[in-house]
Amino acid sequence: MTELQPVRKLTIVAKDPGLRVGPDGAMLFAQVDVPAEILGPGPTGYRIKVVDYNATERRAYAARQSYQDGDTLLDPFAPVEGEGLLDPKYQAKALADPNFHAQNCYAIAMRTLGLFERGLGRRVNWSSGGHQLHIAPHAFALANAFYSEPDRSLMFGYFFDAEGKPIFTSLSHDIVAHETTHAVLDGLRTRYTEPSGPDQAAFHEGFADIVAILSIFSLPEVVAAGLGFSGKMPGSGEPMVLIAADKLTIEAIRTSILLGIGAEIGMGTGGGRQSLRQSVELPPRADILDDPDMAEPHNRGEIVVAAMTSAFVELWTTRIAHLGTFENGDYNLSAVVDEGAKAAAQLLQMAIRAIDYCPPTDLDFGQFLAGLLTADRELVPDDSRFGYRALIRKAFASYGIVSPPKETDGEGCWPRFAAAETLQYSRSNAEALTRDRNECFRFLWENREALEITERGYTEVISIDSSLRIDPDGIPFRETICQYVQLGHFFGAELIGICKIKPLPEGFTTTSSVDLLGGGVVVFDQYGRVKYHIANRLLDGRRQRQRLEYLRDTGQLRSRRDDARTRFANLHLARMEG
Question: What are phi and psi of 293, to 5 degrees?
């Protein structure tokens, strides 16, 4: 009987087509691990369905690849004997085949989804409620790509540069990982697409870039190439390769292709840009969040990317400094790459776990920072070796991002729920509390006074998720995340009397009507006891005033729920036209 394997290898374009190596300027290909499954045409698996239809040309590309032969799982684009991943003829043949573009999307999307599921310790749902996310690798002839929740799909466009060369967004690891992250985050926090303050849409964009950038560091050949090494990484027992110290300075790493997004697209659309975005080069300023140029979501999102990648660069160079040097002060390339992989993996997992500690509505950058620090402290209480959390706080503060000062402790983390001893559990079914939404809602309702959940709004528990993580000592760490939202319809007079918004914002009267959002996450420990309650409360007058003023000023006050679901497509199209 054939032993079933948990993973399989599939060939992709590593990082971005703009990353070139060797004397011939070859594109960097890689074979990556994805979950093993019996794939249908497309390829189509249990979470991803590639539907290769070109709406501009009104044509469908036939899926002609076979991904298994009996029980043997195949990589149809693996080099055959006599070929190599850097072979120009092999690359030309693969790049000319639309089925390779489809495989590239499938493999990177599954790889990105796997990062989230390992970090969160559970399966992740798509916001659409279906099991499969659709991907269109050649959706339209535009220099664009976006996530569309109504279509439960990722759309990747293509365009032609000044020389007539076709450029496909579906071939960029950066772009595919970015758009997949939008879909995953929308499944985790579906209300983050709602009109809110300036940070929420920007966070979606910035977080997607963070995942795309840091996820690439798990591919050693990509990191080595990004540092300027064009040869083959040495295997076990082979002679080491040295890299000069001047290639490992903070400035050299900050300007490398490794920390950029969409190199080929950035160059192909003109303007002399090395990358579509190189957020790490954004100069830190404590008042940058108030800059009018940072109001657009993509631009504003670059601030949180710059903070995170700046922390990564400092952390990586600190770890490199702990390594021994060889002749002329050079470093062992493999050790340098390994330290980068460790630092990136740690920060990426921190960022992913932070989502469980973020409120489900009206997120701002400071709250994400608090979630980031809290998630890491829960899993790794001792941060003394490299000081990840202190370094992150410093990097974020340099861009004006701090944890909410009146709601967090001295370390910038969310405090444990202070009124835990007042909560009543006697009328709750302990077994069902952390797995049944109705039982969890009953618990919240019974304890609404202690939890400060107002009766004024419609309240709904929208998810209960159990997580299993492993701490550095190998001990299982279990939590349950209950996510609830509140919706209230208020007239202006109620904003004054109930929400204490006085005077009303300009343009509002006592007869004006608005919808307000609130909600929180309740984190239960392994015993089913409340550990954290992290909320943006419905009747928080200060926050609601800021939100209403922002929506008024940006023309979003009357936005409908359906408008929010197409927001990513609209944002990306508006950015392209601008």
Answer: -70, -15
Q: Average of pLDDT values for 57-66? A: 91
Q: Looking up tokens 């702990």, which residue turns up?
A: 322
How does the average pLDDT of the chain come out, rounded? 90
Q: Can you give 92-158 as a three-state secondary structure string? A: HHHHCCHHHHHHHHHHHHHHHHHHHHHHHCCCCCCCCCCCCEEEEEEEECCCCEEEECCCCEEEEEE
- Token digits for 2? 């054939």
List, in sequence order, every beta strand (DSSP E) within 43-110: 48-50, 53-54, 59-60, 68-69, 72-73
pLDDT digits (tens, 9 = 90+) for 444-494: 999 999 999 999 999 999 999 999 888 777 888 899 999 999 999 999 999
Residue 406, number of CB atoms within 10 A of its CB: 5
| Structure confidence by residue, pLDDT tens digits, 396-415 | 999 999 999 999 999 999 99
Which DSSP helix (H) or strand (E) runs through 549? helix 541-553
Q: What is the DSSP string of 222-264?
A: HHHHHTT--SPPP-TTSPP-EE-GGGSSHHHHHTSGGG-B-HH
Contact assessment for residue 568 and residue 146, using Cβ atoms and an 8 Å cutoff: yes
Q: Rounded mean pLDDT of 260-266?
A: 75
The pTM of this model reads 0.94
At 562 the three-state DSSP class reads helix
What ranges in 460-534 are assigned the alpha helix state H?
Answer: 492-497
